[in-house]
Amino acid sequence: MTEGLRARARLAMRTEIAETAFALFLQRGFEQVTVDEIAEAAGLSRRSFFRYFPSKEDAVFGLLYDLGEELAAAVAARPAAETPWTALRAACAVMLTPMLSRSDEALALLRLINDTPTLRARHQDKQDRWRKLLIDALHARGVDGIEADVLVSAALAVFDVVCRQWIASPAADPVGLMDEAFAVLTPSRESV
């Protein structure tokens, strides 16, 4: 079996486990579901579950593992003449795009994270990792020090606001919310 095929098979299994876990969490609540129950529902042993995810919390974020790398790559792929804030806005669209194609599931996931303290904490840990990757991407664009940290932290905070607003108003257009939220902090010399 080639490495590429192994990686795709592993990703497919991770996705299946994450989707199984998510369905159980929605039915019964995050705290009421055990790793053993997730493993059984996915047709795995407990030990096999832990080969794919280090914790139950990580199963919730199973589909988001590579998102930090995708965000950093999106910033790196933006035109060199583009402002850092505009590049970050475009990169955040990477997070929004998959949510739009499965909006009911995305809203349910956002609610689950928002309503579960342990998941909110795990989400913050994940965003800290994304922050480092995005700061490195801005450094590669010539943005240094505190400016890179402030811009990245602000962009991630704006995305969190968009998610909270969407939870509060599910009929709202997330793309419109993102445009509106990023515009609040866009310097007057820039346009989103």
TrEMBL record:
Top-rank lineage group of the source organism: Bacteria
Keyword Transmembrane found: no
Every HTH tetR-type domain range: 11-71
DNA-binding region (UniProt annotation): 34-53
Keywords: DNA-binding, Transcription, Transcription regulation
Alphabetized SUPFAM superfamilies for the sequence: Homeodomain-like, Tetracyclin repressor-like, C-terminal domain
PROSITE patterns, A to Z: HTH_TETR_1 (PS01081), HTH_TETR_2 (PS50977)
Stated name of the protein: TetR family transcriptional regulator
Taxonomic lineage: Bacteria, Bacillati, Actinomycetota, Actinomycetes, Pseudonocardiales
